[in-house]
Amino acid sequence: MLEGLTPPAKIPPCMIRTVMSNLDGDDQRILREALADHDAWSHKGLARALTERGLPLGEKILRERRNKPCADCVCR
Length: 76
What we know:
Number of strands: 0
Shape: elongated
Helix content: 40-55%
Radius of gyration: 15 Å
Structural class: mainly alpha
């Protein structure tokens, strides 16, 4: 009955991945482009714009993930 029992794969939490999973395809694309466009969007400016639209992504998490994305992160 328990043959092949293995622990589930660990998926580290990522706030950006969580937010992305709740967006439709067009909004995911727009957010990916904004995350990638360091010239147009500062961390603080992007955080403010997203917060105004109800997306809880702060400046710190944006800075961390834009500079060093998770291994499986969608923010690349």
